[in-house]
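thought: fold this chain, then report.
action: predict
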Amino acid sequence: MRSLRPDEAEARIAAGELRVVDVRSPAEFENLGHIPGAVLLPLGLFAVAPATLADDGPPWLVCCEHGIRSARAVAILEQAGLTGALNLAGGMDQWRGAREFTAGEPFGPHGPNAWVVGQADLWPRRGRALDVACGRGRHALLLAGAGLTVTAVDRDADRLAALRESAQRLGLDLEVSQRDLEAGDNPFGTETWDLIVVVNYLHRPLFPHLIRALSPGGLLIYETFTRRQAESGHPRRPEYLLEDGELQERVRPLEVLREREGRYDERWVASLAARRGAATI
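observation:
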């Protein structure tokens, strides 16, 4: 692992030769100050980094308060196959450059979905998890890092191949499955999954399959866009947008444990966590 002294790092950041990711807590990031332009991705969420910190572009400089947590984060990136990451030697404790004291957002394009993480107390401690329309696999990696046996499903073969390689390098129990989720068949099996996660994806005919695929006591965590999202951004097509109150109706007869609907993190979404009962559905 290669480290940079703070003065070297400051010069290279000013020249546009480095991107910065800060692995401290949100409180440290805001109250102790951070390097201007830094991305906040706390070490506890860093399992998603191989899917979210792009390997193209300038190298990533990883920092924490004293250079210890950041060294662990760099090791994760290197093990996952992302090359070129650098550790800020001595951390922010030794940084003498400019600082900002604004709040950071760990749940953005570089982090996991806030709703999924917010339901972590409901996740099973062990068992099988399914990440539907996984994209680059940020939630699949997060769940596998939490000790679950994960299958990530998507139609993008290149993204799945990259996810598989990262998971193998990290020693995670994660498989990938390339499928067209809109082909019409049942892609998930019956009473198979202890946890199913769906984020930013909607294909209405899948809901009966998702419900049947949950094992007794299994948990569905779902969040996607509502029709008001079309007023401010993408997606805009009605088939990708939920009507008001629709998500709760779609998951019946699951028991809805938690739900919300409205504007969160600059997006109009509906979110829920719902559990399947022991009785056969």
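thought: worth noting. The mean pLDDT is 95.
final: tokens above.
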